[in-house]
C-alpha cells in the first residue's frame, strides 16, 4: 500500500500490551499526521515509553494493530491469513522510524561521524564518500562538525544526544521518536538538545516526543497527549491541555510538575 | 584561602619517599633472585651445554610444532564452539539453552585429564563408528573407532570440547557486558539481527572477551602437556622421551620450560595489541594525546560520559 494524504502516517488502533499480568497499554488509539509534532506527557509508569517502543517493534503488542504509512506493523495478511512478518520485513519497516533514547545509546566503539554514517552505508548501501559528506552536514546541523572524530566517551551528554539525533536523521526517517531525550542530561545541557529538536520540528519532520519539559512541549507540539494508568486520558492542542482542560488527573499532574496556568 | 598557598612551589620537582619497609623488601627480592640464579648457574645437574644442545634438537622442535599446532587447532574449535554455545545459552529457545547448560556443566565439572583419557579409550565405549539411518540396518559407512580417531585426534577432540565449555562462559560474559540499548539503537536504525550482532554487539563485547581468552590460550598451551598420557609427542612428551633414555631430567625440563615461556611471551605481546585495538572509544589512543593538560581534561569528560 502506498501512503496517501488521507492515511495518517501513524495509526495506533486499540493497542493493548501486557508485561505478564501488568497491563501497560490498555486499548490505546492514536493517529499522527505527516508533519505533525505530538508530545506525550504523563506520570512515570503510564506507558509512554512502551507506546513509542511498540511503534518500531522493540516491544510486541498483545492485541489491536499499528499502521505506519498505511502498512500494518509486524504482521501481514497472506491469502486471508494474518502472519508474523519475516525478520527481513521487520527490519525494513524499522528503517522508516528513527528513535532517540534517553541514554543516547551511541555505539561506543565508533566516532561521532561513524555513528552517523554506519546505518546509511550498511543498510541503505550509500557510498562511503557520499555518506561521509552527508554525515558531516548533519553533524554541522546539530553543531558538532568539530567533534566528528571524537568517540562518545569524549563527548558531554548533550553532545552525545545531538550525535544520536544526527544518527537518527541520517536514515531520513518518516517519523522520529524521542523517549525523554533530555532526562539523563545535566540541567545546563538540556537547552542545546531542545534547540536542535526545535530546529528539526520547524523543518516539517514528523515527531513523537515523550518529555517532561513542559515549556518545550507547549512550544513545539501540534498536539499533546496525556497518558496515565496505561491509557490515553486526553488529547488536545497545547492550549487545551495546559490551560483550559478541566480533567482533574491532568490538573494534578501538571501541578506536580510545576506548570502554572 | 588563596593567600595560604605558596605559589612558588611546583610539585613537578617532587621526589618519591622510600619507606624502610620498601628497602627491606627490595633487598629481600634481590637476595632471592641472586640465590635462584646462583643455584641454576652452579648446579651440576643444570648443564647449559646440554640445554643448548637439546633446545633445537629435532624431536624437541617436532614436539614444539605439535604443541603449537594442537594449541591453535583446539583453541580455534573451542572459540567457535564457545560462540555457538554462548548464543544457545542466551537464546530464548528452552531446549537449546538447556542443552548448552548441560554441556557446560559437564565439561567444566569433570577433570580435563579424565576427559582426555576417556577420549583416548573411546574405542572401548564405542567400538565401531557407523554412519547410516538410525534404528535400521542401513549403513553407508562403518569403521573401527581406533582407525577413525587416532591418539592425536582424540587429544584434539578432548582439548577442544573442554575448551568450548570455558570459552562459552567467556563469550557469554562479553556479550552480557554490552548494554541492551546498543542493540536496540542498532535495530531501530534498521540493521538486521546479524548486522547488529557482528557490527555492534560483538566488537564491543571483544573488549571483555580478549583478556580472558588470552588466559585461555596460555592455559591451553600448557594444558597440551597433558596429552603426554595419550602418547602424543608434544613438546613435553618429547622432552620426557629423551630424559627417560639419557637421564638428564632437569636440563630437558628446562628446555621445555624455555620454549613454553617463549611462546607465552609472544602470545602476551599479541594479546596487548588486540586489547589496544578493541579499547577504541573506551580509552583514548595515546598517540592522539598532545599535552598533559589536554589529556587530563579529556579523561574527565570520558569518565563523566562513561558514568552515565
Ligand atoms: N520489559 C518490561 N518488563 C516488565 N515490565 C515492564 C517492562 N518495561 C516496562 N515495564 C512496566 O510497564 C509500565 C510502563 O512502563 P513505561 O516505561 O512505558 O512507562 P513510562 O510512561 O515511559 O514511564 P517513565 O516516565 O518512568 O519513563 C511500568 O510499570 C514498567 O514497570
Ligand atoms: Mg519512559
Q: Which second-level CATH architecture of chain B applies?
A: Orthogonal Bundle
Instruction: Please identify the top-level CATH class of chain B.
Output: Mainly Alpha
Mean pLDDT over the full residue set of chain A: 93
Q: Give the end-to-end Cα distance of chain A, rounded to a whole number of Å.
A: 44 Å
Helix tally of chain A equals 9
Helix coverage percent of chain A: 25-40%
Total domain units of chain B: 1
Describe the overall structure.
The complex is a heterodimer of chains A (261) and B (308). With 261 residues, chain A is α/β, with parallel strands linked by helices. Chain A has helices at residues 48-55, 87-95, 112-122, 128-141, 157-170, 187-202, 214-220, 238-244, 248-256; strands at residues 10-19, 22-32, 37-41, 63-68, 71-72, 75-78, 81-84, 97-100, 175-179, 206-210, 223-228, 231-236. The longest helix of chain A has 16 residues, at 187-202. The model of chain A has no long low-confidence stretch (mean pLDDT 93). Chain B is mainly α and 308 residues long. Helix content of chain B is 71%, strand content 4%. A two-stranded antiparallel sheet of chain B has the order 1-2. The longest helix of chain B has 32 residues, at 58-89. The A-B interface holds A 56, 58, 87-88, 91-92, 94-95, 97-99, 101, 103-111, 118-119, 122-123, 151-157, 160, 164, 167-168, 171, 184 and B 179, 181-182, 184-193, 195, 199-200, 203-204, 278, 280-282, 284, 298, 301-302, 304-306, 308. The complex binds adenosine-5'-triphosphate and magnesium ion (MG).
Amino acid at each position: 500500500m502506498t501512503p496517501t494524504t488521507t492515511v495518517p502516517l501513524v495509526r495506533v488502533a486499540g493497542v493493548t500490551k501486557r508485561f505478564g499480568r501488568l497491563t501497560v497499554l490498555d486499548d490505546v488509539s492514536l493517529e499522527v499526521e505527516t508533519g505533525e509534532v505530538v508530545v506525550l506527557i504523563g506520570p512515570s509508569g503510564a506507558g509512554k515509553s512502551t507506546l513509542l517502543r511498540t511503534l518500531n517493534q522493540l516491544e510486541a503488542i498483545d492485541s489491536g494493530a499499528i499502521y505506519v504509512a498505511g502498512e500494518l506493523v509486524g504482521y501481514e495478511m497472506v491469502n486471508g491469513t494474518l502472519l508474523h512478518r519475516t525478520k527481513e520485513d521487520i527490519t525494513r519497516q524499522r528503517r522508516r522510524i528513527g528513535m532517540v533514547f534517553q541514554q543516547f545509546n551511541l555505539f561506543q566503539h565508533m566516532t561521532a561521524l561513524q555513528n552517523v554514517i554506519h546505518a546509511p552505508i550498511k543498510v541503505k548501501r550509500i557510498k562511503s564518500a557520499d555518506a561521509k559528506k552527508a554525515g558531516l552536514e548533519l553533524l554541522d546541523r546539530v553543531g558538532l562538525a568539530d567533534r566528528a572524530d571524537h568517540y562518545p566517551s569524549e563527548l558531554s551528554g548533550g553532545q552525545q544526544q545531538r550525535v544520536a539525533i544526527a544518527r537518527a536523521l541520517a536514515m531520513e526517517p518518516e517519523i522520529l521518536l524521542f523517549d525523554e531525550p533530555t532526562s539523563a542530561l545535566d540541567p545546563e545541557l538540556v537547552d542545546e538538545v531542545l534547540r536542535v529538536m526545535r530546529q528539526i520540528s520547524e523543518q516539517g519532520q514528523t515527531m513523537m516526543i515523550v518529555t517532561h519539559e513542559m515549556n518545550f512541549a507547549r512550544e513545539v507540539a501540534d498536539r499533546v497527549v496525556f497518558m496515565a494508568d496505561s491509557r490515553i486520558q486526553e488529547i488536545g492542542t497545547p492550549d487545551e491541555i495546559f490551560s483550559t482542560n478541566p480533567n482533574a488527573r491532568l490538573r494534578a499532574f501538571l501541578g506536580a510538575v510545576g506548570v502554572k496556568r | 584561602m588563596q593567600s595560604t598557598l605558596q605559589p612558588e612551589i611546583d610539585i613537578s620537582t617532587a621526589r618519591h619517599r622510600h619507606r624502610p619497609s620498601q628497602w627491606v623488601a627490595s633487598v629481600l627480592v634481590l637476595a632471592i633472585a641472586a640465590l635462584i640464579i646462583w643455584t641454576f648457574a652452579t648446579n651440576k645437574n643444570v648443564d647449559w651445554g646440554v640445554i643448548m644442545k637439546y633446545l633445537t634438537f629435532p624431536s624437541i622442535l617436532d614436539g614444539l610444532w605439535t604443541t603449537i599446532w594442537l594449541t591453535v587447532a583446539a583453541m580455534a574449535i573451542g572459540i567457535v564452539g564457545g560462540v555457538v554455545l554462548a548464543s544457545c545459552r542466551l537464546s530464548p529457545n528452552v531446549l537449546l539453552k538447556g542443552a548448552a547448560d548441560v554441556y557446560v556443566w559437564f565439561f567444566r565439572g569433570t577433570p580435563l585429564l579424565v576427559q582426555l583419557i576417556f577420549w583416548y579409550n573411546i574405542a572401548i565405549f564405542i567400538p565401531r563408528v557407523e554412519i547410516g539411518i538410525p534404528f535400521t540396518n542401513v549403513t553407508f559407512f562403518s569403521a573401527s573407532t581406533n582407525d577413525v580417531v587416532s591418539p592425536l585426534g582424540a587429544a584434539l577432540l578432548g582439548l577442544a570440547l573442554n575448551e568450548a565449555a570455558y570459552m562459552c562462559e567467556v563469550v557469554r560474559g562479553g556479550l552480557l557486558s554490552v548494554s541492551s540499548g546498543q542493540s536496540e539503537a542498532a535495530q531501530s536504525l534498521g540493521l538486521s539481527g546479524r548486522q547488529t550482532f557482528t557490527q555492534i554487539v560483538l566488537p564491543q563485547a571483544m573488549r571483555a572477551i580478549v583478556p580472558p581468552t588470552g588466559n585461555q590460550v596460555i592455559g591451553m598451551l600448557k594444558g597440551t602437556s597433558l596429552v603426554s598420557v595419550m602418547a602424543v609427542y608434544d613438546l613435553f612428551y618429547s622432552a620426557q622421551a629423551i630424559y627417560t633414555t639419557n637421564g638428564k631430567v632437569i636440563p630437558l625440563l628446562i628446555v621445555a620450560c624455555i620454549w613454553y615461556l617463549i611462546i607465552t611471551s609472544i602470545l602476551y605481546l599479541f594479546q596487548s595489541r588486540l586489547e589496544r585495538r578493541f579499547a577504541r572509544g573506551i580509552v583514548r589512543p595515546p598517540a592522539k594525546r598532545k599535552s598533559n593538560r589536554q589529556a587530563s581534561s579529556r579523561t574527565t569528560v570520558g569518565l563523566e560520559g562513561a558514568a552515565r
